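Bumping my old thread because nobody answered last time. Still need a sequence for this structure:
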């Protein structure tokens, strides 16, 4: 799982990153990431200024003079504030960033809230292993006589039981069914399979890139139909570079400034989302649609750096990536000058 740390100094952020990364039996592992693409946020209460009941500014990175604006009504992921909280600010989601047990308890609350995401991750792990044996089929995923998921591998759709647990999926049987058994119950979460596979690939520590992508020329086939904020800077940069000119793996390392491990990880996510191919004819046929979709992402933003590879320099502990700061991408936005001064507490 990906954890965003906002407003913490270097010492506190490093300590939180170490505690969150320590593996606990039976629980997911966490890694600190760009806050814009994180699954959950820990926010330093000492770095928060309250503007009104729902709007906050966060001094991030601490000591930089930069501020981010956050409207709590727009938040789409779990968050918690490290004490002390600002005077007059009320939140039921708080923890002690100096106590490891308090941090672990907060992470476990995040994990409970994120169970649907964790279940998609578990399903994605099995899909990658089983897809070659079930191409074009309808599969029911069943455990102890209970239907957990319906997979239509011809229409590339999935239905997932809302309350399913990752452990249930890991013990389930995959049962081939006739094509007419592809109806997804109305109570299930309906998901395109490319989203399930992306959810797994971007979070997995496994090496997932097919071997041919290390030797053959790589082409952009399409922009995945995913929320814009799911792409990080390297995903976006790779798609732009491949639209400009296909290339082999080593060439892309040079053109993006990414190391081989990072490039392989990001290419694998794009591969499982159907974005890249080694088939030039397939890419050529899809080029007009891919070009239109890429332009719609609007990632040539005014005021950006002249050298796009410089955007890769920001770390998970530093400033969020400039390319994803537009409101369409994240609830976190650059604070305006008018938002720099907190409102009187009687207005909160």
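Sorry it took so long. Here it is:
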């Amino acid at each position: 799982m990906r954890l965003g740390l906002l407003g913490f100094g270097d010492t506190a952020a490093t300590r939180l990153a170490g505690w969150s990364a320590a593996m606990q039996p039976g629980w997911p592992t966490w890694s600190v990431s760009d806050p814009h693409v994180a699954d959950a946020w820990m926010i330093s209460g000492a770095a928060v200024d309250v503007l009104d009941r729902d709007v906050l500014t966060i001094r991030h990175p601490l000591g930089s003079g930069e501020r981010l604006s956050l409207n709590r009504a727009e938040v789409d992921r779990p968050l918690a504030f490290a004490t002390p909280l600002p005077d007059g600010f009320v939140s039921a989601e708080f923890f002690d960033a100096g106590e490891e047990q308090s941090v672990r308890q907060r992470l476990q609350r995040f994990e409970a809230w994120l169970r649907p995401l964790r279940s998609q991750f578990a399903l994605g792990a099995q899909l990658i292993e089983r897809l070659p044996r079930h191409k074009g089929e309808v599969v029911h995923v069943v455990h102890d006589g209970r239907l957990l998921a319906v997979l239509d591998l011809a229409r590339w759709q999935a239905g997932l039981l809302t309350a399913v647990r990752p452990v249930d999926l890991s013990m389930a049987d995959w049962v081939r069914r006739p094509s007419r058994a592809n109806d997804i119950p109305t109570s299930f979460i309906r998901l395109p399979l490319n989203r399930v596979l992306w959810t797994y690939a971007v979070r997995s520590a496994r090496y997932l890139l097919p071997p041919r992508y290390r030797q053959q020329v790589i082409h952009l086939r399409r922009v995945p139909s995913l929320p814009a904020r799911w792409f990080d800077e390297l995903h976006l940069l790779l798609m732009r570079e491949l639209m400009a000119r296909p290339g082999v793996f080593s060439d892309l390392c040079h053109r993006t400034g990414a190391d081989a491990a990072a490039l392989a990880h990001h290419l694998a996510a794009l591969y499982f989302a159907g974005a890249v191919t080694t088939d030039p004819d397939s890419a050529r046929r899809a080029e007009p649609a891919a070009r239109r979709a890429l332009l719609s992402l609007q990632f040539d933003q005014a005021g950006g750096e002249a050298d796009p590879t410089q955007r890769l320099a920001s770390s998970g502990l530093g400033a969020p990536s400039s390319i994803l700061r537009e409101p369409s991408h994240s609830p976190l936005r650059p604070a305006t000058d008018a938002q720099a001064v907190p409102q009187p507490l009687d207005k909160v």
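The chain has three domains: 2-113+332-347, 116-201, 211-313. Let me know if any region looks off to you.
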